[in-house]
Structure formats: structure tokens, C-alpha cells
């Protein structure tokens, strides 16, 4: 282990017995049988509390999930039909017609692909295709008969040039963890999977610039950088499967955006292959380059509709030695907001995550997620906030965090809290937050919305949705509060059109009325392609369609996604 991380070792539990009097530690508890005990102090200030130091590997910090799609139950292939109806969440209203301009694959096509790629990279195996045709949520199912796995941009270029000339539609696929139906075919599009493009090309320790292929799994990059003393500027629950090319194509946000910013800031360069097979080298490694239009930004967040990303240059950050994670309980949403306000001021540059979940999310996790333990088990609180700090000066960071927590307790913003004392506790805190999507999946049907909203308004939507749905469904709110990103999820035993009709278009209209975005970080995919007007003007959408027409005149790249079909077919 080359690098290590120190975290505050004293796990504590804070009970604010007397709201406006000075803060007391009234009681302490072991968070798990394995956690080490700490000195008991019946009435002491937090600053006087004893802390230990634990040495942990930052790489072990997060619970990581490998979404093994092979293990998920397999779906029946659908017959290829012109009209494709779906019967669940948000897609019930989406009726997509197969573009008749597209060809279907024939034996000559297969011969060509085998000639340029070799048989191993031309996949027709039924089981592999079933997996690749199905998204992570098991909500979107295509009926592709072919998956290609090019190993480099040259092979991909030959594939796309051929597909374009034959008008064979394709869907780019990375780790297939996308949540809006963007990564799987709608009909019989050829799946182009990037998993074989998985080399790290270059890493510069001085600048922190990493250049790699698009198919590198995010967690592998995190591990690689850990050994070099660096971290990726993004992290998300799907890190064990998602690929950096998929992350950039969706402009993924994740758990640390509040600190490291969006991929539009950290991606320095890209290599992409256009629909006609042209390889475009924009693989700069400079932080500053004002020589005309910065075209790489077009491809960040374009969800495979403009090109396929093959190489990536990204700015990584030095790994800092002091990481602290607090899991706090708040009685109401206004306290969460005030806590965020205070955290930005009092923790400032060391704040690296500010996540929240409500009681409904916590309940789901505790019921459905293996290994989930409530760090604050004496009660179910209305809201929970996970705050992470990352800095380089352990005593300074600790002091700052403690002062912040004391203030939060004294001003009654926080009702209860625990601070991780070692990596196992840190992991168990993150497990709760990162495990919400899995818990929701296990609970049954889930209608998933990913919204950018003003923080002060955000939770009103959850409450209004609860009133609309009554006992018909469980409305759950969680997300990246520090970024103004709400994940509104409606959980029900099974998909039901009556529930969907209560949710949509209400959720989009509400978001639009509050000048929010109907996609904060997951993208539009198939789910929201036709809903784009809730967040973009018709002129903007028209301009997007014109750009798509220039780069992909035959519309073969990820059809039916992102842009309304009427504008591109
Ligand atoms: P895929 O799902 O394979 O593809 C996503 C889209 O990108 C598709 O439209 C696909 O066509 C396109 N694409 C993929 N690779 C390429 C390429 N090389 N070139 C061009 N287009 C390409 N998202 C967040 O933003 N924040 C989160 O915190 C977050 N947490 C998640 C947690 C879980 C448990 C899960 C299951 C998902 C989560 N997601 C999150 C959503 C998802 O993981 C991200 O969108 C991720 O970036 C997708 O990467 P992927 O490699 O799986 O892409
Ligand atoms: C998350 O923040 O957990 C992800 O975006 C996934 C989700 O919203 O379910
Ligand atoms: Zn998210």
C-alpha cells in the first residue's frame, strides 16, 4: 500500500438534549460490534473529545458495487416490430416507431464484421445479447442480434464507416449502468460495446493528467490513481461497472461534484469516432487552449448521439491525507438546507460531499440492502445528511469539522450524528447512501426522476407527490443536495399506468415551472427524449438537431434517444 489516508478515529454520537443550551455528548454507542470503543465522557465539549487515528486505504473508502448483469434474470427477446410499446415507468407514454430508413443486418454484414474484427469480437451468443439488450433497471429491452467489441479507434472507424454506408443503426454501450434507457437498443440496433478499449495510456504526476481509453472501468482508474497518490474527479455508486467513456457521454455528476466540479471542467480532451468513421483527435492535455471552438464539450453529455468516444484526457486531483465522514440526522428539510449553507461557509475548501436521504429512503435501505446498518438506530429521523471533508491538514480539518458540528448541534440543525472512526465505518455510511438505487430495485417497480432544482424548493416536490399518490406508492427523496440535485423516486409493488399518470406530466411541469432541469445528471436517453422541451427552448432543440444532422446525417448513432424523433428521422 503506497498511499494511505487518515481519518478521525473517534466515533461519537451526539444527542442534543437541551436545544439551546451548550452542546453535550450525552451518550455513546458502538456502531458495530467491530468498531473500537472510545473514552466515555458524560458531559464534555466535542473539541475535548478524544480522537484516535486510523490508517486506511482511501481506495477502500466506498462500498463498491459490481453490477453483475449476468446474474440478473434474463428477459425474453421481443419480436421485431414497427411500433414498440412499453408498459412501465415513463416509457408507457413513449411509443417509438422503428425508422424504416434503417437496414437490417444480413449475412454479408456478418462476414464483413468478422473480417475486420475476428470472430471473437462479433457477438451473436443469445445469453450475452440478452444481457446487453437489457438495461440495469430491467426496464428497457431491445432486440439486437449483434454486439461488436472493437479494440481500438481504427476498428471502430471501419465499423462505423460501413454501418453508415449500409444505414445500420448502432447503440454505443459502456458499462450499461445508465438509468434512462440510453445504453440499450430500442429495436435491432447493433450494440457497439467499448469494454475492450481499456488501456491506461499515460499519467503525468506533475500535472495530474490521465489519458486512457474510453472502456476503462471507473473503479479501475480509481485504483490505478490511488497507487500514484491521486484521485478521479468523479465517483459514483456504479463505479465497479461504469466506464469513463460512459461517464463522459452522460456527463455523470456523482458524489463529489460539489468539490471537483462537472466533467465539462475536468475533461481536457477526447478522441471520438464520427458516424462516417472519421477519427477526430481532440485529445489535448492542456488546461488552457483557446484556439477556437472547444468542440470536445459537444460530446460531453451527448449520450452517444453524436460520436463514439474512444480516448479521454482528464485532470485528476492529488489524494489528500485527511478524510472525515459524518452521518447526521435532521428533523426537517429546512435544517438540511441550513446545514448546507453552514457547511459551505464553515467547511469551505475541505467539503467534498454533501448528500441527503429522507426517512423513506433510509427505511428502504434498511429493509432491502444487504449489510446496511443504521448508524443512528435509536429513532428514524425525517432526514439524514452525509458530509465528507477532504483536506491535507488532519488537525486543522478535524478542528474545522468539530466546530461546524458543535455549531450545528447548538443551533438545533442536527438532532443526532455519528462520525466515522475507520474505513469500515466510512464504508458503512457510504453503503447506505450509495445503496439506495439497489434497495429501490429490490423493493419492486421504481419510477425514477433526476432533477435539478433550487435547493429551497426541491423537497416541496416530494411532498406534493406524496399527496398526489397517497397510499398507492412510496415516494422517496435523496440525492446530491450540495449540487441542487434531487433524485425523486416512486416505489410501488408493480408498474401501474394509473400511478404513472399521477406522476407525469406533473413532475416535468412542476420542474419546468420552478426553472429546474428534468435531467440533472442521468441524461435524457429514451426515457426523456420527447420531454426535452420542458428544459430547453424549441430554438435550442432545433439547433441540437442541426448539429446532429451535420455529424450524423443518416441518424445511425443511438437513434430515438436524446432528441425528439420527429426532428432527426
Ligand atoms: P452506459 O450505461 O453504457 O451508457 C450511457 C450512455 O452513454 C448511453 O447513451 C450510451 O449510448 C452512451 N455511451 C456509453 N459509452 C459511450 C462511448 N464510449 N461513447 C459514446 N457514447 C457512449 N449517474 C450519475 O450521474 N451520478 C450518480 O451518482 C450515479 N449513480 C449511479 C448508481 C447506480 C447504482 C447506477 C446503476 C447508476 C448510477 N448512475 C449515476 C448512472 C450511470 O452509472 C451513469 O450514467 C454512468 O456514467 C454510465 O456509464 P456507463 O459506462 O455504464 O454507460
Ligand atoms: C445516485 O445518486 O444514487 C444515482 O444517481 C442513482 C440514482 O439516482 O438512483
Ligand atoms: Zn445521483
TrEMBL record:
GO CC list = mitochondrion
Segments forming domain FAD-binding PCMH-type: 140-319
Enzyme Commission identifier(s): 1.1.99.39
A Gene Ontology molecular function term for this protein is: FAD binding
Which controlled-vocabulary keywords does the entry list? FAD, Flavoprotein, Oxidoreductase
First and last residue of the signal peptide? none
Cofactor(s) the record lists:
FAD
Family matches, as SUPFAM superfamilies: FAD-binding/transporter-associated domain-like (SSF56176), FAD-linked oxidases, C-terminal domain (SSF55103)
Oxidoreductase listed as a keyword: yes
Instruction: Point out the coiled-coil segments of this chain.
Output: none
Q: Which reaction does it catalyse?
A: (R)-2-hydroxyglutarate + A = 2-oxoglutarate + AH2
Task: State the family it belongs to.
Answer: Belongs to the FAD-binding oxidoreductase/transferase type 4 family.
- The entry's protein name is D-2-hydroxyglutarate dehydrogenase
The record lists the organism as Tagetes erecta
Amino acid at each position: 500500500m503506497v498511499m494511505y489516508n487518515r481519518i478521525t478515529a473517534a466515533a461519537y454520537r451526539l444527542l442534543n438534549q437541551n436545544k439551546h443550551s451548550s452542546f453535550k455528548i450525552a451518550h455513546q454507542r458502538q456502531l458495530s460490534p467491530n468498531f473500537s470503543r472510545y473514552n466515555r465522557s458524560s458531559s464534555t465539549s466535542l473539541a475535548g473529545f478524544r480522537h484516535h487515528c486510523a490508517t486506511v486505504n482511501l481506495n477502500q473508502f466506498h462500498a463498491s458495487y459490481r453490477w453483475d448483469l449476468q446474474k440478473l434474470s434474463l428477459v425474453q427477446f421481443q419480436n421485431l416490430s414497427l411500433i414498440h410499446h412499453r408498459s412501465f415507468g415513463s416509457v408507457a407514454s413513449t411509443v417509438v416507431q422503428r425508422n424504416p430508413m434503417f437496414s437490417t443486418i444480413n449475412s454479408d454484414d456478418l462476414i464483413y464484421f468478422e473480417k475486420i474484427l475476428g470472430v471473437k469480437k462479433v457477438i451473436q451468443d443469445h445469453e450475452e445479447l440478452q444481457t446487453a439488450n437489457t438495461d440495469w433497471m430491467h426496464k428497457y429491452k431491445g432486440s439486437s442480434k449483434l454486439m461488436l467489441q472493437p479494440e481500438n479507434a481504427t476498428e471502430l472507424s471501419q465499423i462505423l464507416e460501413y454501418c453508415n454506408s449500409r444505414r445500420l443503426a448502432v447503440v454505443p454501450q459502456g458499462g450499461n449502468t445508465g438509468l434512462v434507457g440510453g445504453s440499450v437498443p430500442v429495436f435491432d440496433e447493433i450494440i457497439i460495446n467499448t469494454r475492450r478499449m481499456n488501456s491506461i495510456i499515460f499519467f503525468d504526476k506533475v500535472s495530474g493528467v490521465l489519458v486512457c481509453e474510453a472502456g476503462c472501468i471507473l473503479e479501475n482508474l480509481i485504483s490505478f490513481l490511488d497507487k500514484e497518490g491521486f484521485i478521479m474527479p468523479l465517483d459514483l455508486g456504479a463505479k465497479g461497472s461504469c466506464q469513463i467513456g460512459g461517464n463522459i457521454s452522460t456527463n455523470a455528476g456523482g458524489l463529489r461534484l460539489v468539490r471537483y466540479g462537472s466533467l465539462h471542467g475536468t475533461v481536457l480532451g477526447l478522441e471520438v469516432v464520427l458516424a462516417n468513421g472519421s477519427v477526430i483527435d481532440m485529445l489535448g492535455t492542456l488546461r488552457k487552449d483557446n484556439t477556437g471552438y472547444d468542440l470536445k464539450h459537444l460530446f460531453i453529455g451527448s449520450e452517444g448521439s453524436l460520436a463514439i468516444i474512444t480516448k479521454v484526457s482528464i485532470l485528476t486531483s492529488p489524494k489528500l491525507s485527511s478524510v472525515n465522514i459524518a452521518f447526521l440526522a435532521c428533523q426537517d428539510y429546512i435544517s438540511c438546507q441550513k446545514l448546507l449553507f453552514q457547511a459551505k461557509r464553515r467547511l469551505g475548501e475541505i467539503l467534498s460531499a454533501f448528500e441527503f436521504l429522507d426517512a423513506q429512503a433510509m427505511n428502504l435501505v434498511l429493509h432491502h440492502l444487504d449489510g446496511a446498518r443504521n448508524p443512528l438506530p435509536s429513532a428514524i429521523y425525517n432526514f439524514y445528511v452525509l458530509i465528507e471533508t477532504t483536506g491535507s491538514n488532519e488537525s486543522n480539518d478535524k478542528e474545522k469539522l468539530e466546530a461546524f458540528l458543535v455549531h450545528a448541534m447548538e443551533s438545533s440543525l442536527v438532532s443526532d450524528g455519528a462520525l466515522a472512526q475507520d474505513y469500515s465505518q466510512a464504508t458503512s455510511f457510504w453503503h447506505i447512501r450509495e445503496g439506495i438505487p439497489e434497495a429501490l430495485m429490490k423493493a419492486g417497480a421504481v419510477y425514477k426522476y433526476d432533477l435539478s432544482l433550487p435547493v429551497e424548493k426541491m423537497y416541496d416536490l416530494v411532498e406534493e407527490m406524496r399527496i398526489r399518490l397517497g397510499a398507492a406508492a412510496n415516494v422517496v427523496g435523496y440525492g446530491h443536495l450540495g449540487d441542487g440535485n434531487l433524485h425523486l423516486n416512486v416505489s410501488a409493488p408493480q408498474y401501474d399506468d394509473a400511478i404513472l399518470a399521477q406522476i407525469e406530466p406533473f413532475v416535468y411541469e412542476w420542474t419546468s415551472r420552478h426553472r429546474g432541469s428534468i435531467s440533472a445528471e442521468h441524461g435524457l436517453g429514451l426515457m426523456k427524449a420527447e420531454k426535452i422541451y420542458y428544459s430547453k427552448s424549441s430554438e435550442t432543440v432545433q439547433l441540437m438537431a442541426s448539429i446532429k444532422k451535420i455529424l450524423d446525417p443518416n441518424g445511425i448513432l443511438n437513434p430515438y434517444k436524446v432528441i425528439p424523433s420527429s426532428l432527426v428521422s
